[in-house]
Amino acid sequence: MGAVQGFSAAHGEPASVDGVLEMIRATGGRATTSRRVLLEVLFEDQGHRNAEDLGSEVRARAPEVHISTVYRNLEELERMGVVTHTHLGHGAVTYQLASRSHPHLICAQCGVRIHAPDELFLGLTRAAQRSLGFQIDPSHLAISGLCSDCAPGRTADENS
């Protein structure tokens, strides 16, 4: 399948709401108002939002959209590789555009979330592939531990 306009040819990453809607149409889906509004919210937001928060934002713009529609659209967008979900600690699952997905370190004591570079997990990724034939997607990782402020007697430099 050729590159869809609005997607990065190198990574299949969504570049625009219209690009994603074009891909949806190209795969036989419908570009509904609820999908457009949800995509607009996702493209405008840089953070991690749970489905309820996304639903509230969608309903502020399109009051007729039910939360179940938001959930269905998130599932479909995730199946298509446009959206990813992450479990950030004990809270609700969060969603973001796949192109903005990254690994996290989460402090089990204070709850701070640290965006970790993919490179931090290269050794683990290679070892899992070599030893187990398993391909890790580091952008989907959320690892629990203690931040430098909460770890007893340690600093960030000592932890590295």
Report a brief summary of the structure.
The chain has helices spanning 17-26, 33-44, 51-61, 67-79, 122-132, 156-159; strands spanning 49-50, 83-86, 94-97, 104-107, 113-115, 142-145. By secondary structure, it is of the alpha+beta class. β2 and β3 (94-97) form a beta hairpin.
List the helices and strands and how they pair.
Blueprint: H1 17-26, H2 33-44, E1 49-50, H3 51-61, H4 67-79, E2 83-86, E3 94-97, E4 104-107, E5 113-115, H5 122-132, E6 142-145, H6 156-159
Helix pairs in contact: 1-2, 2-3, 3-4
Q: If you had to describe this structure to a student in words, what would you say it looks like?
A:
It is a single chain. The protein is an alpha+beta fold and 160 residues long. It has two domains: 17-99, Winged helix-like DNA-binding domain superfamily/Winged helix DNA-binding domain (Arc Repressor Mutant, subunit A, Orthogonal Bundle); 102-159, Dna Ligase, domain 1 (2-Layer Sandwich), CATH 3.30.1490. 38% of the residues lie in helices and 13% in strands. It is built from six helices and six strands, in the order H-H-E-H-H-E-E-E-E-H-E-H. The strands form two sheets. The chain has a three-stranded antiparallel sheet with strand order 1-3-2. Strands 5-4-6 form a three-stranded mixed sheet, with no helix packed on it. A hairpin with a 7-residue loop joins strand 2 (83-86) and strand 3. Helix 1 (17-26) packs across helix 2 (33-44) and helix 2 (33-44) packs across helix 3 (51-61). The longest helix has 13 residues, at 67-79. It is globular and about 55 Å long. The termini are far apart. The relative contact order is 0.11. Mean pLDDT is 81; it is low at 1-11.
